[in-house]
Design brief:
The chain contains 4 helices and 17 strands. It is α+β, with helices and mostly antiparallel strands.
Length: 287
Amino acid sequence: MRLILVSFILSVILFAQSLQLQESYNISSNDIYAKHIFKDIKSNFFLLSIPEHSNRFKISSKKIEAEFLLHGINIKTNRTGIVTFIRSDTFDTSILKNELASKFQEALPTLNIDNISLMCRCKLKELPKDYKIVIKRSSLHKSSGTFYIKHNNERHFFTYKIKATLAVIKTKDNVKNKEQLNAYNTYDDEIDFKNFNSIPLQNISLGQVISSRSLKKNTIITQKHVKKLPLIRKGDYVRVQLNDGAVRIEFGAKALKDGSLSDIISIRKSDGSRLEATVIGKGMVSL
């Protein structure tokens, strides 16, 4: 009996702790009820109505708290003190969601999507049969944003929000500038997908890149943090190839800067003259 009572008290405490307002809610009707906010609540009483033609409606969380308090229920406010109700899909967008998911997973192969919510910022009543998704490359590493579909030279804009997890690579310790990144100084982790300034590095790149700046321990490594592993380092002695028809001439020179495959770098010959050459392999350039 005592164990049952303790379990009951714990469940009440946990439920009470879960009654915290989020910053936004997706809705499909103008009338908002308690279960739109807390689906497990027993009493589904009316809260408010939002304007009929409003896709986004903001209200002070204090007003919602007061409505719940009238029914004897204490809830916690959110961080911003504002709740935004967002009108959700008014037509079936499952195909559009799948296509959008494919674009994100092509850019981020380790992305594991749980849910995609869309809001049409347009007057479409149904999804056109022939359309093309247009989304900026910079949006493909952000968990929320906008894109549009193009149909008959018309643009129909959507707002998206993705709930997902992402496998990322982090630094084990502080990493120096131009240090090669590999399995010894990095580790794998899985995090909630969020907005990134650049696409997180994928495993296939490890061992092929160096850091482009100093990185602190536990930094999520993105493409902005790395550059290609140089085939030639500044100060290296390089073999220079010069092809003139059927004749190939080779001589030695000193590299004056780092260079990866196909980069154009400056070299200095033994007589002190400088030339521009293209990196064609490890320790090799051509004129």
